[in-house]
Amino acid sequence: MSLKRKIALNLSIAFSLLFGIVMAIIYVSFNSFRRDEFRERFEKRLEFSVNYISQSNGFNQSNPNLFSETADNIMLNENILIFDGKKHLLYSTIKDKNINWDNGLLKKLDADSTIYNEQTKPEIYAALRNIHGKNYYIITSAMDTSGQSKLDFLKYLLIFSYIMSIILIWFFSYYIIDKFLKPLEKLKKEISEVTAHKLTTQIPVKASNDEIGVLAQSFNTMIVRLNDVFQSQKDFTASASHEIRTPLTRIAFQLENLTKAEYHSPKTLSVLSQISTDIYQLSDLTNSLLVLTKFDKENIQDIYEEVRIDEVIFDAYGIVEKNFPNLKMDFQISEYSLESGQLTVKGVKSLLEVVFINLFKNAALYTENDMVQVTIEESKNALTVNVLSFGKTISTEEQSRLFDAFMRGSNSQKITGSGLGLRIVKRILEYHQSAITYQSRYDNENNFKITFPL
Predict the structure, then answer these.
(1) pTM of the full structure
(2) CATH of span 211-294
């Protein structure tokens, strides 16, 4: 989930909970107000009843009509029961019905003197009053229809308001957060366009002291420093490779003249040959590094061209053959290839030559029969090149690290090398969005499979 959505979600949830709490407080407060108001009406009704009994001589059941008509605070569905001190019914507004009452309620009045129960329907208000030295139990019940209808209306209104508010809160919170974070989104987009090969790109910084402006300025400072480091590294690699290549060429030339100019013993010739091979490998490594420094991974596609892979293979073999004249190549085009295949890929020819030079050189160093087999197969989606040689294989444990820098397998004992050749091969193929894998289906079989997407 993006930061924008997280902030909008958390903000919406917070406001929703807060608004829900406010709605609940409003509902509970109104219900409390309704209850207090209705209880006040009960108390007024009780006061009227007490005054009426106090002013009546010999109050009994002959007074109900006058009692009801005189009342000025009659409530809806009102029922009144009046008992004497012995809990005998003296008066009831209920006519033509069997009158039932709760004796337990009358007993509670002896202790509490006033009881209000809003949980029953109708609600009940009961009181014990002493009038002219006599105790009277007065029980009044009534329905607060008006108050309940207002409370129900308020409940539905609050629910509707809450739902609409939630929708508006979620919408506006996302809109507002999106508006506030738009500069951050823009900064994110600009940062994503900065790569290791485009460190000279500066992010525009507005004349503001907000956090985003400070972040952009800090990022610009960081990429300037990184660019200095990368450029220094690149310059050093190019300079070192160039400076090393020149004396290596002179040494190789002098060794060749020395070998031809005088007669040497077989042992001396063997040593000179080994020195010449080492110089060739070191020269080949410096050439590979020098070629790599000329290209940027991000921009290399701009200089892609159509390259015939068979021509690259033969050119690379010709270069390797000069130093390993005994190496023979068996070149084949698979019978499963498309008849209309052009054997071409998009890439940089000089880099692709480095790939096959390293593979052929490895085949020459580790082969047991001085033979390398190259098979090309082209399909609709890919062009595959298999470079097969026979010799000591690489163990399963070492295969996972085969393309790491300075990795040398157990089969490379007594063979000089830097351990960088296959690493360079993999890097160049990554530049071309291609892949290389190592396979060993049989003993003494080493097969490197290169796949170029078409």
Answers:
(1) 0.49
(2) 1.10.287.130
